[in-house]
Amino acid sequence: MRRGDIVVSVDGHYVVTATALQRLMVEDAIERRFEMTVWRNGALVDVVVEPRELTER
């Protein structure tokens, strides 16, 4: 994902709020791949996202 991307769907489920996005990604998020459709620069783009655990800087 890139800065400014707007998430449209996750694994085929439409996302209409930030809360909906969080709910879709909460369970088993670490080391799981999510197929997302994002709105980027006026077009729909399919991306794969692999969340990782945050480490301290």
Structural class: alpha+beta
Strand order, sheet with most strands: 2-1-3-4
| Tally of separate domains | 1
Low-confidence stretches: none
End-to-end distance: 21 Å
Whole-number mean pLDDT: 85
Question: What is the beta-strand fraction?
Answer: 35-45%
The tally of helices reads: 1
Rg, Å, rounded: 12 Å
C-alpha geometry: globular
Kindly state the number of beta strands. 4
Organism: Mycobacterium xenopi
Protein name: PDZ domain-containing protein
Q: Explain this structure to me?
A:
The mean pLDDT is 85. 16% of the residues lie in helices and 37% in strands. The protein is globular and about 35 Å long. It has 57 residues and is an alpha+beta fold. Strands 2-1-3-4 form a four-stranded antiparallel β-sheet, covered by helices on one side. The two termini are 21 Å apart. The protein has one domain. The protein has one helix at residues 18-26, and strands spanning 6-10, 13-14, 34-40, 43-49. This is PDZ domain-containing protein. It comes from Mycobacterium xenopi.
Write a compact overview of the structure shown:
The protein has 57 residues and is of the alpha+beta class.
Topology:
Blueprint lengths: L5 E5 L2 E2 L3 H9 L7 E7 L2 E7 L8
Antiparallel strand pairs: 1-2, 1-3, 3-4
Protein name: PDZ domain-containing protein
InterPro entries: PDZ_sf (IPR036034)
Describe the structure using short key phrases.
57 residues; alpha+beta; four-stranded antiparallel beta sheet; 4 strands; 16% helix
